[in-house]
């Protein structure tokens, strides 16, 4: 019903790494955050395979929902919705030894001779259950039984439960076990709770309520003046390229391109947007001609508002 898209935070991080000077002090933080976010995204993609093994007539499947609830959001990697129950899945992509400590709601991860501590994901998904139930009640929807699971999609995760806690055994598993856990829940919940009409209403409302998380450069305290302008070379990543006879030319490696400005415009929208005007574009691409800027923007299939003189462009 709803497919995930690349998180904005990944796109913003990538754009920042392209456009901050090589010696910028925030580069390490940005790279670290990018790798974590990419691993999470990859883990969810890997989980898709195990979810695709389920009979798809039984479930409405939502990937990566983020729904406002009061002053907060409730966010879930996967929601599987049936007329009898719903299953919320929080997925982790984490190689290494993962040791659960339910007494203190923490998880210890040992990997490459390093130990790190994380919040208990079971508690995390229980909070999501609590929020989802409240959201259903707030919208006068029938609160159906809610099941939850924490999955580890990485085949290199070594799960350990030293205190033999039953809830950890019940609620945490490797991705490969998902179909069997779902079969258990189907056995447990055989009563129809929602009519087809109700489930369609719920589905529509979930899709309508979803708000993707915004990402800005404020997060790193980076000011717009630190972002390097110019079209970057698709071959050697250096800039700025020069506009010569309707093409972009790299003075460093002599590569030419007709489309190198597209990434630059997207970088602008991610980092300095969400909108761009003709004048802002000329300044960012380092081109003097208004006509050329209009031509380049026109070919980008961006949304625009305003007349020809004061037109503002944005990405969808
Ligand atoms: Zn080049």
Main attributes of the structure:
single chain, globular, binds zinc ion, Trna Endonuclease, Chain: A, domain 1, Arc Repressor Mutant, subunit A, 5-stranded mixed sheet, 2 domains, 316 residues, 24% strand, alpha+beta, 4-stranded mixed sheet
* Estimated radius of gyration: 24 Å
Q: Give the low-pLDDT segments.
A: none
The proportion of residues forming helix, as a percent range, comes to: 25-40%
The first-level CATH class of the largest domain is given as Alpha Beta
- How large is the count of helical segments? 9
> What is the overall pLDDT average?
92
Distance between the termini: 20 Å
CATH architecture of the largest domain: 3-Layer(aba) Sandwich
The strand line-up of the biggest sheet is: 1-2-3-7-9
Instruction: Write down how many β-strands occur, each being a DSSP E stretch of 2 or more residues.
Output: 15
CATH topology of the largest domain: Trna Endonuclease, Chain: A, domain 1
Residue share in β-strands? 15-25%
Question: What count of structural domains?
Answer: 2
InterPro entries: NERD
Domain NERD: 39-155
Protein name: Nuclease-related domain-containing protein
Pfam families: NERD
In short:
The chain is an alpha+beta fold and 316 residues long. It has 9 helices and 15 strands.
Q: Would you give an account of this structure?
A:
37% of the residues lie in helices and 24% in strands. The chain has 316 residues and is α+β, with helices and mostly antiparallel strands. The protein folds into 2 domains: 8-209, Trna Endonuclease, Chain: A, domain 1; 229-314, Arc Repressor Mutant, subunit A (Orthogonal Bundle), CATH 1.10.10. The strands form 4 sheets. The chain has a 5-stranded mixed sheet, with helices on both faces. It has a 4-stranded mixed sheet with strand order 6-5-4-8. Strands 10-11-12 form a 3-stranded antiparallel sheet, with no helix packed on it. Helix 1 (8-19) runs antiparallel to helix 2 (27-52). It starts with 7 loop residues before the first helix and ends with a strand. The mean pLDDT is 92. Bound molecules: zinc ion (ZN). Zinc ion (ZN) binds at residues 233, 235-236, 238, 250, 252-253, 255.
